[in-house]
Amino acid sequence: xxxxxxxxxxxxxxxxxxxxxxxxxxxxxxxxxxxxxxxxxxxxxxxxxxxxxxxxxxxxxxxxxxxxxxxxxxxxxxxxxxxxxxxxxxxxxxxxxxxxxxxxxxxxxxxxxxxxxxxxxxxxxxxxxxxxxxxxxxxxxxxxxxxxxxxxxxxxxxxxxxxxxxxxxxxxxxxxxxxxxxxxxxxxxxxxxxxxxxxxxxxxxxxxxxxxxxxxxxx
Length: 219
Ligand SMILES: [Zn+2]
Prior knowledge:
The protein has two domains: about 10-125, no CATH class; about 140-215, no CATH class. It is built from six helices and seven strands. The chain has helices spanning about 10-15, 20-30, 80-95, 100-105, 110-125, 200-210; strands at about 45-50, 55, 65, 140-150, 175-185, 190-195, 215. Strands 6-5-4-7 form a four-stranded mixed beta sheet, covered by helices on one side. It has a three-stranded antiparallel beta sheet with strand order 1-2-3, with no helix packed on it. Helix 3 crosses helix 5 (about 110-125) and helix 4 crosses helix 5 (about 110-125). The protein is globular and about 50 Å long. The chain binds zinc ion. Zinc ion binds near residues 38, 41, 59 and 62. Zinc ion (ZN) binds near residues 38 and 43.
């Protein structure tokens, strides 16, 4: 993001990303620095339908459509793309670091959404990828969970994590912080801290991080 035309202030960023075409261009450049690539088949022969802001893959065996969000970490998010991109701008440009409180306040999203967005953006910048795990082949993804911190039995009742772990074991004997790791065969790894290990939380985690059709390997 060293383009001289990019916004210099938060207000300018908010205005810049209010234009849906600017959002598409920005994500496309960030996601596909070597040119637009079909997320279904990794094909490069694509045709843009500007009225709908989607591409159609021209590969004979594919012919699928996709948007800048397809199979990316922005997919399935209730937060609109322009707010995501202003948040990306904030993380990249605020040299002294940005808090989820600031994102929540400036973008008018809930504290929970802001926390998640911040976490997701930092991971993407660190890993250099905005793709969900699983890749174009929808390859297998291993998931496991680690428990960090004190024992659950020492926690206040209201703070105890609920539900069962990925493996189906109850979390009652486990610890305070639950870290779910997701590892792809080609070595890409992602880790997220979750507050509870309920089915809903796990389902949402998988949906956000892993491409549909991927085989999930759990213990
Ligand atoms: Zn394709």
